[in-house]
Amino acid sequence: MKKAILFDLDGTLVDTVEDIRCAINHCMNLTYNREITRDECMSVVGRGLKNALKGALAYSSARYPDDELDILYHELISYYYIHPCDYSKPYNGITELLKTMSQKGYALGILSNKSDILVKEIVKKLFSDINFAFVQGFCDKIPLKPNRAGVESFSSLVDVPLENIFYVGDSEVDGETVINSQPVKGILVSWGFRPRSVLEKFEGKNIKIVNTVEELKNGIN
C-alpha cells in the first residue's frame, strides 16, 4: 500500500527563524521601526510572510495602508531571496529521516505558506539530495494553509489517498490543516516555532505530538 508524507518547512524541517527575522528587520529598519527579537519572530510566522510582516509591525504599533504594505512585502521577498539560507539549516536528524522514509518507499512533499519562489530556493540549497515529489509554497493557485487545497494537490500528484498521508508540522496552522484535511493523519513536532502547550489542544484529533526526530520516525507507520 503506497503511503506519503507531506511536511511543513519552517520550524518542522528547517530552523529558518533567523533568516526570516533578518528579512523582516531589513523592512523594519527601512521604516524606522524597532527590530523584532527571535521570540517575536517565531510568534508571527506561520500564516505567510505578509502576515508575519504585519505582526512584526504591530510590535511597534505601526500600521500602513495596503499599497505601502505591499511595497514593504516585496522588499522583504527581494531581500530574503538574496539571503535565503545565511543561517537556516535542517534540524538535527531531519536529513537522515527524509532519506530513510524515501528508501522505505514513502512519497515525500513539502507544503509551506512561505512564498513559492523562496520555498523552492531553500529546498534546492538544503535538500538537493532528497527526492521530493512535491514542493509547494504560497502562490495564486494554492491558498494558504489551513485550507486543504495544497494537501489535496499533493494527494492527487502522488496518487495516494488522503487516509494514507501523514502531514507533519509545528504550529496551530498545521493542526488546523490536518483537521481540515481529514482523513489525513497528523503529527506535530514540539521543536519548532510553537511551544508544546500551544499544540496540545490538537492532540487526539487524529494528531500526535512528538518531541524528537526519533519519535517522529516511530510515529509514521
Automatic annotation (TrEMBL):
The keyword Hydrolase applies. GO terms for biological process: DNA repair. Pathway: Organic acid metabolism; glycolate biosynthesis; glycolate from 2-phosphoglycolate: step 1/1. Pfam families: HAD_2. One of its GO terms (molecular function) is phosphoglycolate phosphatase activity. It catalyses: 2-phosphoglycolate + H2O = glycolate + phosphate. Its EC number is 3.1.3.18. InterPro entries: HAD-like_hydrolase_sf, HAD-like_sf, HAD-SF_hydro_IA, HAD_2, HAD_sf, PGP-like_dom2. Transmembrane segments: none annotated. It is an enzyme of class 3 (hydrolase). GO terms for cellular component: cytosol. Signal peptide: none annotated. Keywords: Hydrolase. Belongs to the HAD-like hydrolase superfamily. CbbY/CbbZ/Gph/YieH family. This is phosphoglycolate phosphatase. It comes from Bullifex porci.
